[in-house]
Amino acid sequence: MTGQTKRDSFGQRDLIATTPEVAIVIPAYNAAHFLPRSLPPLFQAEDGARIVVVDAGSTDGTAGVAAALGAQVIRLPQREGPARARNVGAAEIEADVILFLDADCVAHPDVIGRVRELFQNEMDLVSVTGSYDSDPPESNFFSEYMNLRHHFFHQRAQRENATFWAGCGAVRRGAFLEAGGFDSERYPRPQIEDIELGVRLRRLGRTCLDPDLQVTHLKRWSLRSVVNTDIRCRAIPWTHLILESGKMPNDLNLGWSQRIAAAIAPLALVALFAAPALAWVNWWGAFALAIATLGTSVVLHADMLRSFVALRGVGFALRAWLFQQVHLSYSSASMGLCVLFHVARGRSGDSTRTT
């Protein structure tokens, strides 16, 4: 490195006219089929970045594939979640900045360079988060819906005070260590371990989102994997985190418009499917219900619909809007049940303490 340096508040080099050193940590579980697509672009663009793949107890030869492709490999003796794997990889890193990538994500050629530039030019930056791109290789409906939904919300999310996403997210090593890393005990499987880390990182300094920091997501989604991820890995743990922190973030898919959309999503489904059956009882009432709820839902999702139409056409946009109502309904129901259980436990505890 060249140029003048000083120390930042985390005891690292805070760089002036100097390029920060970036190292890449990739947790991988049974990812042997993804790595031949996700690793080579990193080696083509890495320009000296150290690449560490942490095999989290795979049974499919992930470690061998990663090593053959040229990555440094750390193999865990038993299956571990990505939080633990990332922590283990980060412990091997001494670079200024750690870039976390998922094994099923192909980084765009400019990702490492953009990360270096951001941390070089923005001295107060603690972390930066990227986004899926709009071109997933899997073309079935649920794969396109999940990737384009993620892309849409991350492209429109707030740039400052952003949450952290470890699918493509970079953090100053000193801040990562000071924050304590990912909470692998609380999140032993893929959940919201990166979002929870983001809460702690925001206390240490500036966090941002760069919508142009993009990766291509290779995962193939099915209805079952979508629902399981939405409920078990997102809605339930995110609700617990919100209840503990006492703060509801007004960003991503928890913004005010999406909260209102979630509240009326069940009504939109009723209006769509039940209103025709009720028309024989009260035609005007059923018509008014359908127009009011469906119209409101479409208005709230207007930007998303325009984005989906531009990317995949009207047919996909309509199907995506319909499934979005289903997604919002079961996700908000899951969050609501968590809140009820939380309140019930609180009342039970108060009753026990008073007897």
Task: Give structural notes.
The protein has 355 residues and is an alpha/beta fold. It folds into two domains: 5-221, Spore Coat Polysaccharide Biosynthesis Protein SpsA, Chain A; 252-354, no CATH class. Helices cover 52% and strands 16% of the residues. It is built from 14 helices and ten strands. An eight-stranded mixed sheet has the order 5-4-3-6-9-8-10-7, sandwiched between helices. The longest helix has 41 residues, at 314-354. The radius of gyration is 22 Å and the shape is globular. The model is unreliable at 1-17 (pLDDT under 50).
Q: TL;DR of this structure?
A:
This protein is α/β, with parallel strands linked by helices and 355 residues long.
Write the layout of secondary structure elements.
Blueprint: E1 5-7, E2 13-15, E3 22-28, H1 35-38, H2 40-45, E4 50-55, H3 62-68, E5 72-75, H4 82-91, E6 97-101, E7 105-107, H5 111-121, E8 125-132, H6 141-156, E9 168-172, H7 173-179, H8 193-201, E10 206-217, H9 223-245, H10 256-273, H11 275-278, H12 283-300, H13 302-312, H14 314-354
